[in-house]
Amino acid sequence: MRSMDKIKETPSAEFQTAQEAIAWIVGRMEKLGMKPGLQRMQMLMEKLGHPERRLKFIHVAGTNGKGSTCAYLSSVLQACGYDVGTFTSPYLEKYTNRIQVNGADIPDDVLLRLVNEMKPIVDEIAETEVGPPTMFEISTALAIMHFGKVAYPDYVVWETGLGGRLDSTNIVNPVVTIITNVGHDHMEILGDTLELVAADKAGIIKAGVPVITAVEPHEVWSVIDQTAKAKKATLYSLGGQFNFTNVTSELDSQTFDFSGPFRNINGVPITLNGEHQLKNAAVAVMTLEVLRQYYACIVDDEDLFKGLKETRWPGRLEMVSREPRILLDGAHNPEGAATLAAALQSVYTYHKLHMMVGMLKTKNHTGYLRHILPLVDTLIITEPDFHKKGDASMLAEIARELLSEMNREVDIIVERDWKRALETLTSRTEQDDLAVVSGTLYLISDVRSWITYQTDSEKGW
Predict the structure, then answer these.
(1) Omega prior to 90 cis, within 30 of 0
(2) How far apart are CA 44 and CA 31, in angstroms?
(3) What gap in Å lies between CA 339 and CA 379, rounded to an integer?
(4) Burial zone of 228 (CB within 10 Å; 0-12 exposed, 13-18 middle, 19+ buried)
């Protein structure tokens, strides 16, 4: 009977391989783009039997620092012996990177089975007034299915895609909420002031669920504060309820003292570079303290230190080559560029700095370049292999205007083909120089795969 059942089932399966299923999902980005709103997600969850209700989510929003904070949390919780699901975006090498349990991608056979289970429901919803679910919505639902129907991790570290309030990840009711910071990004969608962007990100705050944040300045923080008060959610703010003091900073090794409402922890170690990583780690530690205090999460200091030290976050101040030295950093907005510039001035030594940049057309290029141009000797402007790529010539024009204002001369090279641009960057970087590839993660993804594996990546949202 079993073999007969298999014969009957096979024709009804929409997809025969994981690659076919992934192609169907990512192909929707070109056709449908992004459609903010939660109606389609609500229908998906209802028809799937609400698997999200079985899980403990740590929901993370913010302009920058989301990925690093998620990486710290996942690493520490695993070091403590918990099984941890993670959902992050965009992915750096292949689609399955975005859905992981204990650092392992969702297996192809599981992905295939779950997508085949979801496909008829997606088609059904597409026929209703809410319209077809998007690529990101299906990816979010796939992650929830994997965690809630197959893997059952103890915690799910759950990163927003864009904003918060109408982001498809906002379908969950978390045990704790994090808003790392608020900056100039996606303003064409989220709103044209930092307060509006903050209000959108504050949309993930749920009634009675604790909130941890490092948001500043005050007028932006007050948006988070007001939302938390309205939802009766306890707010833990950096500089308010918790703080950190930098103790030592060397390349690939930093320590800080943490002070919080429940206890102080001295000599907390991390290996990620840049002062901003101390802030991200402090946010992660405060989150873990809340989990310890209110949810009986067992976090021994030994495991906390081990998890923080072992945290890796590809594509962010990542040295992917030693000869020549090539640093990758996915800074793509003014705040990210300021953080990168600070690290280049305080962490790294070099004779000359050569930078290769590729951006999406929607970003704040002027704000980004203002931070970068004072430091570079060579600026190679390229274009990411992505449909929303920014025009290299236009970016070069902005750079020239800014350099004129700064009364500074920099060698600017426009090379639209990123592989040729990378060859130029590599050939210019001598032994004591430093090469940096920065900009959109779609470019970082390609360059990282090419340098590390000599293959193209399957990047995407």
Answers:
(1) yes
(2) 20
(3) 18
(4) buried
